[in-house]
Amino acid sequence: MVVLAKPAALEQISLVRSPSVEDNFGAGLPVVDLAADGAAGEVVRACERFGFFKVVSHGVGEGVVGRLEAEAVRFFASPQAAKDAHGPASPFGYGSKRIGRNGDMGWLEYLLLAIDGASLSRSSPAPSSSLRDAANKYVGAMRGMARTVLEMVAEGLGVAPRGALADMVVGDGAASDQILRLNHYPPCPPLLQNLMPNCSPTGFGEHTDPQLISILHSNSTSGLQVALHHDADAGDHQWVTVPPDPASFLVIVGDSLQVMTNGRMRSVRHRVVANKLKSRVSMIYFGGPPLEQRIAPLRQLLVAGVGDGEEEEQSRYEEFTWGESHKENKLAIIYIIKKISAETLCSDLLA
Ligand SMILES: C=C1C[C@]23C[C@@]1(O)CC[C@H]2[C@@]12CC[C@H](O)[C@@](C)(C(=O)O1)[C@H]2[C@@H]3C(=O)O
Ligand SMILES: O=C(O)CCC(=O)C(=O)O
Ligand SMILES: [Fe+2]
What are the Fe2OG dioxygenase domain coordinates in residue numbering (predicted)? Predict the structure, then answer.
Protein backbone atom coordinates (compact mmCIF):
# COMPACT_ATOMS: atom_id res chain seq x y z
CA MET A 1 0.00 0.00 0.00
CA VAL A 2 1.55 3.30 -0.96
CA VAL A 3 0.63 6.72 0.47
CA LEU A 4 -1.02 8.64 -2.34
CA ALA A 5 -0.72 12.44 -2.67
CA LYS A 6 -4.14 12.61 -1.00
CA PRO A 7 -3.63 10.02 1.77
CA ALA A 8 -6.41 7.49 1.48
CA ALA A 9 -8.06 6.34 4.67
CA LEU A 10 -6.31 3.16 5.65
CA GLU A 11 -8.72 0.36 6.13
CA GLN A 12 -7.50 -1.87 8.91
CA ILE A 13 -8.43 -5.39 7.95
CA SER A 14 -7.54 -7.91 10.57
CA LEU A 15 -7.83 -11.22 8.82
CA VAL A 16 -9.22 -13.88 11.06
CA ARG A 17 -8.05 -16.44 8.56
CA SER A 18 -7.48 -16.71 4.84
CA PRO A 19 -10.27 -18.54 3.07
CA SER A 20 -8.95 -21.27 0.86
CA VAL A 21 -8.59 -20.14 -2.70
CA GLU A 22 -9.52 -22.35 -5.62
CA ASP A 23 -7.93 -20.18 -8.25
CA ASN A 24 -4.47 -21.24 -9.20
CA PHE A 25 -2.09 -19.43 -11.50
CA GLY A 26 -1.67 -21.96 -14.21
CA ALA A 27 -0.45 -21.10 -17.70
CA GLY A 28 -1.17 -17.40 -17.04
CA LEU A 29 1.74 -17.04 -14.62
CA PRO A 30 4.13 -14.35 -15.92
CA VAL A 31 7.50 -16.01 -16.62
CA VAL A 32 10.63 -14.15 -17.81
CA ASP A 33 13.68 -15.92 -19.24
CA LEU A 34 16.48 -13.53 -18.27
CA ALA A 35 18.73 -14.94 -21.01
CA ALA A 36 16.20 -14.44 -23.81
CA ASP A 37 16.17 -11.59 -26.33
CA GLY A 38 13.60 -8.95 -25.40
CA ALA A 39 13.74 -9.90 -21.69
CA ALA A 40 13.72 -6.22 -20.65
CA GLY A 41 10.38 -5.63 -22.35
CA GLU A 42 8.96 -8.80 -20.76
CA VAL A 43 10.13 -7.62 -17.33
CA VAL A 44 8.41 -4.24 -17.70
CA ARG A 45 5.18 -5.76 -19.02
CA ALA A 46 5.00 -8.28 -16.14
CA CYS A 47 5.73 -5.58 -13.55
CA GLU A 48 3.05 -3.32 -15.01
CA ARG A 49 0.40 -6.00 -15.35
CA PHE A 50 0.99 -8.32 -12.38
CA GLY A 51 3.58 -6.70 -10.09
CA PHE A 52 5.59 -9.91 -10.07
CA PHE A 53 7.02 -12.56 -12.34
CA LYS A 54 8.77 -15.92 -12.24
CA VAL A 55 12.42 -15.91 -13.32
CA VAL A 56 14.06 -18.73 -15.28
CA SER A 57 17.58 -18.89 -16.75
CA HIS A 58 18.65 -17.01 -13.62
CA GLY A 59 22.12 -18.56 -13.45
CA VAL A 60 21.97 -19.17 -9.69
CA GLY A 61 23.64 -22.45 -8.83
CA GLU A 62 21.46 -25.12 -7.19
CA GLY A 63 24.15 -25.58 -4.55
CA VAL A 64 23.91 -21.96 -3.46
CA VAL A 65 20.16 -22.29 -2.92
CA GLY A 66 20.25 -25.79 -1.49
CA ARG A 67 22.97 -25.01 1.04
CA LEU A 68 21.16 -22.04 2.55
CA GLU A 69 17.83 -23.87 2.58
CA ALA A 70 19.47 -26.81 4.35
CA GLU A 71 20.94 -24.44 6.94
CA ALA A 72 17.53 -22.83 7.42
CA VAL A 73 15.79 -26.21 7.84
CA ARG A 74 18.46 -27.26 10.34
CA PHE A 75 18.03 -24.08 12.36
CA PHE A 76 14.23 -24.21 12.42
CA ALA A 77 14.41 -27.88 13.49
CA SER A 78 16.55 -26.99 16.51
CA PRO A 79 15.05 -26.88 20.04
CA GLN A 80 12.82 -23.87 20.69
CA ALA A 81 15.11 -22.59 23.44
CA ALA A 82 18.04 -22.59 21.02
CA LYS A 83 15.98 -20.58 18.51
CA ASP A 84 14.65 -18.19 21.12
CA ALA A 85 18.24 -17.43 22.09
CA HIS A 86 18.51 -15.61 18.74
CA GLY A 87 15.38 -13.53 19.35
CA PRO A 88 13.19 -11.71 19.80
CA ALA A 89 13.36 -10.13 16.35
CA SER A 90 13.84 -6.41 16.97
CA PRO A 91 13.51 -6.23 14.03
CA PHE A 92 16.45 -8.52 13.21
CA GLY A 93 16.91 -11.97 14.66
CA TYR A 94 14.60 -14.90 15.33
CA GLY A 95 10.83 -14.34 15.54
CA SER A 96 7.90 -16.70 16.01
CA LYS A 97 4.32 -15.78 15.15
CA ARG A 98 4.81 -12.07 15.84
CA ILE A 99 5.50 -10.09 12.66
CA GLY A 100 6.82 -6.55 12.87
CA ARG A 101 6.11 -4.27 15.81
CA ASN A 102 2.39 -3.61 15.36
CA GLY A 103 1.17 -6.77 17.07
CA ASP A 104 0.54 -8.61 13.80
CA MET A 105 0.50 -12.38 13.98
CA GLY A 106 1.26 -15.14 11.50
CA TRP A 107 1.59 -18.92 11.51
CA LEU A 108 5.35 -18.87 10.96
CA GLU A 109 8.77 -18.52 12.49
CA TYR A 110 11.54 -16.63 10.80
CA LEU A 111 15.06 -15.23 10.82
CA LEU A 112 15.40 -11.62 9.73
CA LEU A 113 19.00 -10.71 8.82
CA ALA A 114 20.43 -7.32 7.85
CA ILE A 115 22.80 -7.12 4.89
CA ASP A 116 25.71 -4.70 4.82
CA GLY A 117 27.02 -4.24 1.30
CA ALA A 118 27.48 -7.66 -0.27
CA SER A 119 27.15 -9.85 2.83
CA LEU A 120 25.33 -10.18 6.15
CA SER A 121 26.17 -7.33 8.47
CA ARG A 122 28.50 -8.32 11.29
CA SER A 123 25.80 -7.32 13.80
CA SER A 124 23.26 -9.59 12.10
CA PRO A 125 22.35 -12.41 14.51
CA ALA A 126 23.10 -15.32 12.17
CA PRO A 127 22.79 -18.44 14.39
CA SER A 128 25.94 -20.15 13.10
CA SER A 129 28.98 -19.48 10.96
CA SER A 130 27.85 -22.14 8.49
CA LEU A 131 24.48 -20.41 8.02
CA ARG A 132 26.29 -17.07 7.73
CA ASP A 133 28.60 -18.45 5.02
CA ALA A 134 25.71 -19.98 3.10
CA ALA A 135 23.74 -16.75 3.43
CA ASN A 136 26.63 -14.65 2.14
CA LYS A 137 26.95 -16.77 -1.00
CA TYR A 138 23.18 -16.61 -1.49
CA VAL A 139 23.12 -12.82 -0.99
CA GLY A 140 25.85 -12.47 -3.61
CA ALA A 141 23.70 -14.36 -6.11
CA MET A 142 20.59 -12.33 -5.23
CA ARG A 143 22.49 -9.06 -5.69
CA GLY A 144 23.53 -10.18 -9.15
CA MET A 145 19.94 -11.01 -10.07
CA ALA A 146 18.67 -7.74 -8.57
CA ARG A 147 21.16 -5.82 -10.72
CA THR A 148 20.14 -7.71 -13.87
CA VAL A 149 16.42 -7.19 -13.23
CA LEU A 150 16.66 -3.51 -12.23
CA GLU A 151 18.87 -2.74 -15.23
CA MET A 152 16.26 -4.41 -17.45
CA VAL A 153 13.55 -2.29 -15.79
CA ALA A 154 15.52 0.87 -16.60
CA GLU A 155 16.17 -0.33 -20.16
CA GLY A 156 12.53 -1.27 -20.69
CA LEU A 157 11.36 2.12 -19.37
CA GLY A 158 13.93 4.03 -21.41
CA VAL A 159 15.62 5.36 -18.28
CA ALA A 160 19.33 6.25 -18.45
CA PRO A 161 21.82 5.41 -17.15
CA ARG A 162 20.99 1.71 -17.18
CA GLY A 163 22.15 1.46 -13.57
CA ALA A 164 19.88 4.26 -12.33
CA LEU A 165 17.76 1.88 -10.23
CA ALA A 166 20.20 -0.99 -9.76
CA ASP A 167 22.89 1.29 -8.26
CA MET A 168 20.46 2.38 -5.51
CA VAL A 169 20.30 -1.21 -4.26
CA VAL A 170 23.56 -2.92 -5.28
CA GLY A 171 25.82 -0.02 -6.23
CA ASP A 172 29.43 -0.33 -5.01
CA GLY A 173 29.68 1.38 -1.67
CA ALA A 174 25.93 2.18 -1.54
CA ALA A 175 24.83 1.88 2.10
CA SER A 176 21.62 0.28 0.83
CA ASP A 177 19.04 -1.21 3.15
CA GLN A 178 18.97 -4.84 2.02
CA ILE A 179 17.42 -7.62 4.08
CA LEU A 180 17.48 -11.43 3.95
CA ARG A 181 14.48 -13.22 5.43
CA LEU A 182 14.19 -16.96 6.06
CA ASN A 183 10.61 -18.10 6.78
CA HIS A 184 9.37 -21.44 8.05
CA TYR A 185 5.63 -22.15 8.04
CA PRO A 186 4.95 -25.28 10.11
CA PRO A 187 2.09 -27.41 8.82
CA CYS A 188 -1.35 -26.57 10.22
CA PRO A 189 -1.92 -29.29 12.87
CA PRO A 190 -4.92 -31.62 12.48
CA LEU A 191 -6.64 -29.93 15.46
CA LEU A 192 -6.72 -26.64 13.57
CA GLN A 193 -7.57 -28.42 10.35
CA ASN A 194 -10.66 -29.95 11.99
CA LEU A 195 -11.71 -26.59 13.34
CA MET A 196 -11.47 -24.95 9.93
CA PRO A 197 -11.96 -27.57 7.26
CA ASN A 198 -12.37 -25.00 4.49
CA CYS A 199 -9.81 -22.49 5.66
CA SER A 200 -6.20 -22.42 6.67
CA PRO A 201 -4.53 -20.11 9.18
CA THR A 202 -2.71 -17.15 7.75
CA GLY A 203 1.00 -17.80 7.59
CA PHE A 204 1.93 -14.24 6.61
CA GLY A 205 -0.91 -11.80 6.21
CA GLU A 206 -1.73 -9.66 3.22
CA HIS A 207 0.85 -6.97 2.52
CA THR A 208 3.03 -5.36 -0.08
CA ASP A 209 6.79 -5.25 0.29
CA PRO A 210 8.10 -1.69 0.76
CA GLN A 211 11.49 -2.00 -1.04
CA LEU A 212 12.20 -1.65 -4.79
CA ILE A 213 12.07 -5.40 -5.43
CA SER A 214 12.01 -8.65 -3.47
CA ILE A 215 13.41 -11.93 -4.82
CA LEU A 216 11.67 -14.99 -3.36
CA HIS A 217 12.60 -18.67 -3.40
CA SER A 218 10.48 -21.36 -1.75
CA ASN A 219 10.58 -25.12 -1.36
CA SER A 220 7.92 -27.22 -3.08
CA THR A 221 5.18 -26.50 -0.51
CA SER A 222 2.47 -24.18 -1.76
CA GLY A 223 0.98 -21.30 0.21
CA LEU A 224 1.91 -18.04 -1.50
CA GLN A 225 -1.03 -16.13 -2.94
CA VAL A 226 -1.08 -12.86 -4.88
CA ALA A 227 -3.92 -10.40 -5.47
CA LEU A 228 -4.56 -9.71 -9.12
CA HIS A 229 -4.30 -5.98 -9.81
CA HIS A 230 -7.51 -5.37 -11.63
CA ASP A 231 -9.52 -4.46 -8.50
CA ALA A 232 -6.70 -4.17 -6.03
CA ASP A 233 -7.68 -0.66 -4.95
CA ALA A 234 -11.37 -1.42 -4.93
CA GLY A 235 -10.75 -3.69 -1.97
CA ASP A 236 -12.11 -6.86 -3.50
CA HIS A 237 -9.05 -8.78 -4.60
CA GLN A 238 -8.96 -11.96 -6.58
CA TRP A 239 -6.47 -14.04 -4.65
CA VAL A 240 -4.58 -16.56 -6.75
CA THR A 241 -2.19 -19.23 -5.51
CA VAL A 242 1.28 -19.15 -7.08
CA PRO A 243 2.40 -22.74 -7.66
CA PRO A 244 5.79 -23.34 -5.96
CA ASP A 245 8.78 -24.04 -8.22
CA PRO A 246 12.09 -24.55 -6.34
CA ALA A 247 14.02 -24.34 -9.65
CA SER A 248 13.00 -20.70 -10.15
CA PHE A 249 12.63 -17.42 -8.29
CA LEU A 250 9.82 -14.86 -8.04
CA VAL A 251 10.65 -11.19 -8.46
CA ILE A 252 8.11 -9.04 -6.61
CA VAL A 253 7.61 -5.30 -7.27
CA GLY A 254 7.86 -3.27 -4.04
CA ASP A 255 6.11 -0.03 -3.09
CA SER A 256 9.24 2.03 -3.69
CA LEU A 257 9.44 0.91 -7.33
CA GLN A 258 5.73 1.69 -7.71
CA VAL A 259 6.43 5.26 -6.58
CA MET A 260 9.59 5.60 -8.69
CA THR A 261 7.61 4.62 -11.80
CA ASN A 262 4.76 6.97 -10.74
CA GLY A 263 2.40 4.04 -10.51
CA ARG A 264 3.22 2.54 -13.92
CA MET A 265 4.50 -0.55 -12.09
CA ARG A 266 2.37 -1.69 -9.14
CA SER A 267 3.50 -3.43 -5.98
CA VAL A 268 1.58 -6.66 -5.61
CA ARG A 269 -0.36 -7.59 -2.49
CA HIS A 270 0.58 -11.05 -1.38
CA ARG A 271 0.10 -13.36 1.58
CA VAL A 272 0.89 -16.90 2.66
CA VAL A 273 -1.64 -19.50 3.79
CA ALA A 274 -0.11 -22.18 6.00
CA ASN A 275 -0.17 -25.60 4.38
CA LYS A 276 -2.28 -28.19 6.13
CA LEU A 277 0.23 -30.99 5.83
CA LYS A 278 3.72 -29.84 4.85
CA SER A 279 6.30 -27.31 6.02
CA ARG A 280 6.93 -24.37 3.76
CA VAL A 281 10.40 -22.80 3.77
CA SER A 282 10.99 -19.58 1.88
CA MET A 283 13.98 -17.28 1.48
CA ILE A 284 13.45 -13.68 0.44
CA TYR A 285 16.01 -11.02 -0.50
CA PHE A 286 14.63 -7.49 -0.08
CA GLY A 287 16.38 -4.88 -2.27
CA GLY A 288 16.02 -1.61 -0.41
CA PRO A 289 17.87 1.69 -1.15
CA PRO A 290 19.98 3.78 1.25
CA LEU A 291 18.04 5.54 4.04
CA GLU A 292 18.68 8.94 2.46
CA GLN A 293 17.33 7.89 -0.96
CA ARG A 294 14.41 10.05 -2.10
CA ILE A 295 11.41 7.85 -2.91
CA ALA A 296 9.77 9.81 -5.74
CA PRO A 297 8.93 9.31 -9.42
CA LEU A 298 12.01 9.29 -11.68
CA ARG A 299 12.14 12.69 -13.36
CA GLN A 300 12.87 11.10 -16.75
CA LEU A 301 9.49 9.37 -16.60
CA LEU A 302 7.59 12.54 -15.67
CA VAL A 303 9.01 14.53 -18.60
CA ALA A 304 9.13 11.63 -21.08
CA GLY A 305 6.29 12.92 -23.25
CA VAL A 306 7.04 16.65 -23.01
CA GLY A 307 8.99 16.70 -26.29
CA ASP A 308 5.81 15.74 -28.18
CA GLY A 309 3.96 18.75 -26.81
CA GLU A 310 2.52 16.77 -23.92
CA GLU A 311 2.26 18.22 -20.41
CA GLU A 312 4.80 17.05 -17.82
CA GLU A 313 3.23 14.16 -15.91
CA GLN A 314 2.28 15.04 -12.32
CA SER A 315 3.64 12.93 -9.46
CA ARG A 316 0.95 10.78 -7.87
CA TYR A 317 2.73 10.40 -4.55
CA GLU A 318 3.94 12.48 -1.67
CA GLU A 319 7.72 12.51 -1.51
CA PHE A 320 9.75 11.04 1.34
CA THR A 321 13.05 9.31 1.96
CA TRP A 322 13.42 5.60 2.51
CA GLY A 323 14.42 6.29 6.12
CA GLU A 324 11.21 8.30 6.71
CA SER A 325 9.10 5.54 5.16
CA HIS A 326 10.46 3.15 7.80
CA LYS A 327 9.56 5.45 10.68
CA GLU A 328 6.04 6.41 9.68
CA ASN A 329 5.25 3.08 8.06
CA LYS A 330 4.27 5.03 4.97
CA LEU A 331 4.72 2.01 2.80
CA ALA A 332 3.84 -1.58 3.31
CA ILE A 333 0.83 -1.93 5.54
CA ILE A 334 0.27 -5.38 6.90
CA TYR A 335 -3.16 -6.89 7.40
CA ILE A 336 -2.29 -9.88 9.38
CA ILE A 337 -4.08 -12.33 11.59
CA LYS A 338 -4.45 -10.71 14.97
CA LYS A 339 -5.26 -13.71 17.07
CA ILE A 340 -7.45 -16.70 16.52
CA SER A 341 -8.45 -18.85 19.46
CA ALA A 342 -7.39 -21.96 17.53
CA GLU A 343 -4.00 -20.39 16.86
CA THR A 344 -3.60 -19.62 20.55
CA LEU A 345 -4.88 -23.10 21.37
CA CYS A 346 -2.26 -24.69 19.15
CA SER A 347 0.61 -22.32 19.91
CA ASP A 348 1.98 -24.82 22.44
CA LEU A 349 2.07 -27.40 19.63
CA LEU A 350 4.46 -25.09 17.84
CA ALA A 351 6.58 -24.17 20.82
C1 LIG B 1 4.21 -5.16 10.14
C2 LIG B 1 5.38 -5.01 9.55
C3 LIG B 1 6.33 -6.12 9.22
C4 LIG B 1 7.29 -5.41 8.25
C5 LIG B 1 7.40 -4.02 8.89
C6 LIG B 1 5.94 -3.70 9.08
O7 LIG B 1 5.74 -2.71 10.04
C8 LIG B 1 5.35 -3.33 7.71
C9 LIG B 1 6.22 -3.92 6.56
C10 LIG B 1 6.61 -5.35 6.86
C11 LIG B 1 7.65 -5.92 5.90
C12 LIG B 1 7.08 -6.71 4.73
C13 LIG B 1 8.22 -7.19 3.82
C14 LIG B 1 9.37 -7.78 4.64
O15 LIG B 1 9.03 -9.10 5.11
C16 LIG B 1 9.74 -6.90 5.84
C17 LIG B 1 11.03 -7.37 6.50
C18 LIG B 1 9.84 -5.48 5.40
O19 LIG B 1 10.81 -4.89 5.06
O20 LIG B 1 8.56 -4.90 5.44
C21 LIG B 1 8.52 -6.83 6.75
C22 LIG B 1 8.68 -6.02 8.05
C23 LIG B 1 9.11 -6.86 9.27
O24 LIG B 1 8.81 -8.10 9.31
O25 LIG B 1 9.72 -6.25 10.18
O1 LIG C 1 7.28 -16.61 2.81
C2 LIG C 1 6.76 -16.28 1.73
O3 LIG C 1 6.54 -17.07 0.81
C4 LIG C 1 6.39 -14.81 1.53
C5 LIG C 1 6.76 -13.98 2.75
C6 LIG C 1 6.71 -12.51 2.47
O7 LIG C 1 5.92 -12.04 1.67
C8 LIG C 1 7.65 -11.60 3.17
O9 LIG C 1 8.46 -12.11 3.98
O10 LIG C 1 7.56 -10.37 2.90
FE1 LIG D 1 6.29 -10.00 1.29
Answer: 175-289
